[in-house]
Structures are given as C-alpha cells and as structure tokens.
Design goal:
about 130 residues, single chain, globular, alpha+beta, Aminopeptidase, acyltransferase activity, transferring groups other than amino-acyl groups, 5 helices, ribonucleoprotein
C-alpha cells in the first residue's frame, strides 16, 4: 500500500521537529540553535513540509519578493522516501504558480543538478555569489 504524502506550509508548532529532521538528514550545520532556526523559518516567505504516515519526510524553504525573484533553499528529503516525488512536491509547493518569478538555487549536493534539471532548472553562466563570511 502506497501511503500518500501531505505537503503543507510549516507551522510554528513544527519548527523544532523540522530542525531535528534536518539534523538527522545531514543539515545540522545549517540549523543552529532553536532560536536561530525559528528565526530562519520566520524570515522565509515560503516553506514546505512533507508528511507521510504522521512523520516528517521532507522540507524546503524559499525566500522571495513574490513578483520577480526567488531563492530556493534547504530542499531535504529523507533517504527512505527519495524517488517517490517528495522533492518535486516540495519544490512545486515553495515555487507556487507564479511563472513570472525566476528561481535560483545552489545545487552542490550529489545528484542535485540532475534532480533540479528535471524540474526545469538550468545551469547559469551569469550567476555570482558571495559566500557567507565565517
């Protein structure tokens, strides 16, 4: 039996569970303290949480002006549910239906370029970045 996945916005009551999920899936270096992560979520205009059988199986967030530009960040799917459409559902939820927005992301993890290219992303030759200062 294939259990459906529910994708919805992150609620304030979800924040600590999401932070723990990210830590369990190799993203602890990006979550920080409870307070830091709560602020990270609060400052994200778009969030997506994937739930299957009452447990978190995926998360993504986006930062956008809602009109022209958006940045897709922290697309994370647990290993047991990869290749089941969870990542696609998260990305589509965050991006929404405004096709006028240009979405950017960093695809540095193994397999990320292939995954995002299937969703219509292309490698850019004009993007620049300034890495965070340590």
């Amino acid at each position: 039996m294939n259990i459906p996945v529910l994708v919805r916005d992150v609620r304030p009551s979800d924040v600590e569970s999401v932070r723990l999920f990210l830590g369990e899936n190799g993203w602890a270096h990006r979550t920080g303290s409870v307070e830091h992560f709560a602020q990270l979520i609060a400052n994200s205009q778009r969030t997506a949480l994937a739930i299957k059988d009452s447990r978190i199986v995926g998360f993504a967030r986006g930062i956008t002006d809602g009109l022209s530009n958006g940045y897709l960040s922290m697309v994370v799917v647990c290993g047991q549910t990869r290749r089941e459409g969870v990542g696609r559902a998260l990305v589509e939820h965050v991006m929404g239906d405004n096709t006028a927005i240009t979405w950017l992301l960093r695809a540095g993890r193994e397999g990320a370029s292939d995954f995002f290219s299937k969703l219509g992303f292309e490698t850019s030759t004009i993007a620049m970045e300034r890495s965070r200062l340590k």
